[in-house]
Design goal:
Elements lengths: L2 H21 L3 H5 L9 E4 L19 E3 L1 H11 L13 E15 L2 E13 L6 E15 L2 E11 L15
């Protein structure tokens, strides 16, 4: 196997593990996949933004734009009974990442793009919400492990269909 294929396999394995943590509501484990220090960025960009890589949160209003502190606080809140959108009945999620591409390595940082489809169901509502989009990841290699430095999500939606849709980890 070539180095490029090994790297792609390593990234896919990591991203599938990241999705599993979110799907299984293992939010502490999910947060542990992020880099330990420095600037982190977890964003959900403006809706229906096909050119998200070119848009800065300084230029447009993002639905979510969390640094390390805000992301950690979001995780703490989502695990409490006061997180009314997810309590007492938590959403069931299934993340699917496909079409890993645009892999660029710069030193110990790896930038890549994946298509994303999140299926969300709740016992107290009818139907399934499908949340399509794409994710721009910036990963860092620490020794032999990958860590997330940035996760920038751009949803292929014209509007949010149900209240509380953004009260979960995408």
């Amino acid at each position: 196997m070539t180095d490029k294929l090994l790297l792609k396999d390593k990234i896919e394995t990591f991203l599938f593990a990241e999705a599993d943590c979110a799907d299984d509501w293992k939010l502490k484990e999910w947060f542990a996949l992020w880099a330990d220090e420095g600037d982190l960025l977890y964003q959900i960009g403006p809706l229906d933004t096909p050119n998200g890589a070119e848009i800065s949160h300084n230029d447009m209003l993002y639905l979510v734009s969390d640094n390390r502190f805000r992301l950690e606080q979001r995780i703490i809140r989502l695990q409490k009974p006061t997180a009314h959108a997810e309590w007492p009945i938590r959403s069931r999620l299934r993340h699917s990442y496909t079409n890993l591409r645009d892999i660029q390595v710069e030193g110990n940082r790896i930038n890549c793009k994946v298509n994303m489809l999140v299926a969300r169901t709740r016992r107290d509502t009818e139907g399934v919400s499908l949340i399509p989009g794409y994710v721009l990841f910036q990963l860092e290699q620490h020794q032999d492990q990958l860590k997330i430095r940035q996760k920038r999500i751009f949803l292929d939606l014209h509007m949010l269909a149900r209240p509380g849709t953004m009260a979960l980890i995408i």
